[in-house]
Amino acid sequence: MSLKLYSYWRSSASYRVRIALNLKGLDYECIPINLKQGDGQQHSAQYDAINPAHLVPTFVDDDEDIILNQSVSIIEYLDERYREPFPLLPAHSVEKARVRALAHDIACDIQPLANLRVLTALQQRYDLSAEQGADWAANWISKGFTGIERRLQTQAGRYCFGFDVTLADVCLVPQVYAANRFGVDMAQFPLISRIYEQCQTLTAFQHAQPEKQVDCPSG
Ligand SMILES: N[C@@H](CCC(=O)N[C@@H](CS)C(=O)NCC(=O)O)C(=O)O
Q1: Which of 23, 76, 117, 164 is deepest in the core (most CB within 10 A)?
Q2: What's the confidence (pLDDT) of residue 219?
Q3: pTM of the predicted model, to two decimals?
Q4: Does the CB atom of residue 35 touch ligand 1 within 6 A?
């Protein structure tokens, strides 16, 4: 198979790309990178050769000799390459910028604060407990979701933007998964919760769920 995704079942950034690959109807090989095994397989010499940032996901297209990191860039690449019938970014420049902004609210301003290496550093350098680490993550997710919930009040339809799935929904769903994991009270965010539930009715989102992945311990 020419398309490969180096992924970790519980990684929200990997989850975004899995959803996009499914929405585009693309068959791909999932290569698990266990972030928790030993010192973390993301730091192995083998993985370093394809992703020196030591983060998942990494997308590989052997036929095209392409190796890409950064989930949002990977999704935008897939969307340009396989645009129809379900484009993930609107054609209009202002709408496109709004969709990207919401995606970046999540991918740039929320997720990095609750990443594994950040939580590990807080625990190792500053002696935080696992519970305090989860509280830190929940705090930043809640703050980010508060702004997103307000923004959605003026622009949401069935999904984040109107009635078509966009890059924003593809980023939102994995972040809600992480929010639940860290104990965020999602009752504070009814619109986000409704869009999350709506997306979960689609098979592309269902098949990308962490629990459905080959490397999920209980999967
Ligand atoms: N901005 C990157 C974030 C990638 C990222 O943070 N991946 C996490 C999992 S969601 C990771 O690999 N963490 C490993 C670590 O922190 O050591 C993207 O969107 O691809």
Answers
A1: 23
A2: 53
A3: 0.97
A4: yes
